[in-house]
Amino acid sequence: MCTFPMMASGSSAKLRKRRLGLVGLILLTLLGIPDAPLQAGDPRPPFAPGEKLTFRLKWTIFTAGEAVLEVLPNATIDGQKARHFVLRAKSNAFIDTFYKVRERIDAYTDLDLNRSLLYKKKQIEGKANRDVVVTFDWHNFKAQFIMFGDKYPPVTIAPGTFDPLSVFYYARLLDWEVNREIRCPITDGEKFVIGRAKILKRETIKVDGQTYDTFLIIPDLQHIGGIFEKSKDAKIKLWVTTDHRRVPVKIQSKVAVGSFVGELISTTGSSP
After folding, report:
1. How far is it, in rounded angstroms, from Cα 134 to Cα 272?
2. Of 116-120, 214-218, 241-245, 250-254, which gets the smallest average pLDDT?
3. Nearest to 228 by CA among 260, 200, 196, 205
């Protein structure tokens, strides 16, 4: 899966194509989150620096690689203290023979997790090589997409806009409930959307030998191109624990080229 949305390099006169690789199986599920008050009943933070979530990624019957979500120590962005989140993914030796994937995404937000401050993506996906930086101008409410140092026209964003990675960590601070339609403003620097999803139900599932009480979430794929746009009845499902940690334990997608699954196999700094 590689990310939502994903842009290919090229001249500004050409439309950059959205693509799907290994990491996208996780990020595409982060389209919408509850627009709700912070939980009042449990003051413990759901995550902290040191949390590391590792996922095994599968394509049809084959193990395809691994993805890691990690909370790093706080950083400083343009003189402002910031939270730092990282997503890393790589295909395994078998997949490397025909479609190598290596990706790292760094996302930074303000300490209160009110909005994004910086988004960076380095990616090798097949023959494509991308180096993206997205900066945020909150005085003028603009996000600037930069590919290999080339700046593209900025997009207008709304207050409280997040990038596709940090939006999930913001979501984990909020109150979730069944049948809620969830939404949040999101940008990747090229496009601004209001992501939407629905918390469908609670469901008990077993992943890697462990049993979890989870919320099943179905994101709206309306704004997603690439393989989802071309696939009839495409669907993504995400299972997240119902406790205050809101840990993602399973991601599943159905597209024309087959089914993709990501499953949580290890945790550090969090114990769902």
Report:
1. 32
2. 250-254
3. 260
Residue that is written with structure tokens 């139900």 in the block: 201
Q: Do the Cβ atoms of 154 and 142 come closer than 8 Å?
A: yes
pLDDT tens for each residue of 120-154: 999 998 888 999 999 999 999 999 999 999 999 99
Element (H, E) at 93: helix 93-96
Hey, what amino acid is at 251?
I
Length of the chain: 272
Domains of the chain, first to last: 24-265 (2.40.360)
HSE of 211, CA atoms in CB hemisphere, 13 A: 2
Going from the C-alpha of 237 to that of each of 61, 168, 201, 217, 253, the distances in angstroms are 18, 15, 12, 6, 6
For residues 150 and 244, give the distance between their C-alpha atoms in angstroms, rounded to a whole number: 41
Place of tokens 């997949």: 95
Distances (CA, A) of 134 to 71, 141, 148: 19, 13, 11
Backbone angles phi, psi at 229, to 5 degrees: -65, -30
Give me the amino acid identity at 84.
Answer: H
Whole-structure pTM value: 0.81
Rg (CA), the chain: 17
- Cα torsion 121, 183, 232, 92 to 10°: value is 30
